[in-house]
Specification:
The chain is α/β, with parallel strands linked by helices. The protein contains six helices and eight strands. Helix 1 crosses helix 5. It has one domain: HUPs (Rossmann fold).
């Protein structure tokens, strides 16, 4: 008779191997949980400025309540040698607000990192070209970030109430920062740019809002310069 062959049972993993497998399983679960929490926080940080600015944003100039000062947030006037539409539309909005009697003064606040890159000077020149008197315009050369521009409007230039002038997504973030520093702020929404042009800006805004939340709620971040006005 042929001999019976016994099937050998599969070997069980060693105790050490099981521990390694359990460790990596837990590590993966913790990583997934951390990713979920991180995604939820990013979503919250990007939503909270929308909620905080509700009732404070205007699209119609006639509906804007008169304010002593309008704060025009800076941006470069050209990108890769082409006109920056964010810049043009903010300047147009600021000029129209002043001509409609909605603001008495205009603070142009932006970066002034070198003689060749001077956002406030470019904004000032553009406003004067649109018929705004030069003595109405206040140049803030230390608006290195939106937070700096907002706080300096109160602490350096003495305006406890401001009308922020930029695109809607930017106004929402700036108003959240203003309210976090006891500054009474409203915003006028300048015309936005086409989505295909502003896509990279919108992507950067996601990270900017996360930093915004930490600046206001955890870090108590202050402007780099809180001294002289110019």
């Amino acid at each position: 008779m042929p001999k019976k062959t016994s099937k050998s049972s599969p070997k069980k993993p060693s105790t050490r191997l099981r521990r390694v497998m359990l460790f990596f399983g837990r590590l993966i679960r913790v990583g997934l949980f951390a990713m979920l929490i991180g995604a939820a926080f990013i979503g919250y940080a990007n939503w909270i400025p929308n909620w905080a600015s509700r009732g404070r944003l205007y699209d119609d100039i006639q509906a804007v309540p008169p304010t002593e000062a309008g704060l025009v947030l800076g941006t470069t006037h050209q990108i890769h040698g082409r006109e920056n539409l964010y810049f043009r539309y903010r300047i147009d909005a600021a000029a129209n607000l002043w001509k409609a009697g909605k603001v008495k003064r205009l603070i142009v606040s932006g970066d002034n990192r070198s003689h060749r890159y001077n956002e406030p000077e470019k904004m000032r020149t553009a406003l004067i070209a649109r018929g705004i008197p030069h003595d109405v315009i206040i140049s803030d050369y230390a608006g290195l970030r939106t937070l700096d521009s907002v706080i300096r409007a109160k602490e350096v230039f003495g305006f406890p109430s401001i009308l922020i002038i930029s695109q809607k997504f930017h106004n929402q973030r700036a108003i959240y920062q203003a309210l976090g520093h006891n500054i009474n702020a409203t915003g006028f929404n300048a015309q936005d740019v086409p989505r295909r042009i502003g896509m990279s800006t919108q992507v950067r805004e996601i990270g900017a809002r996360v930093l915004m939340w930490f600046d206001v709620n955890c870090l108590n971040t202050q402007p780099k310069h809180l001294g002289a006005a110019k």
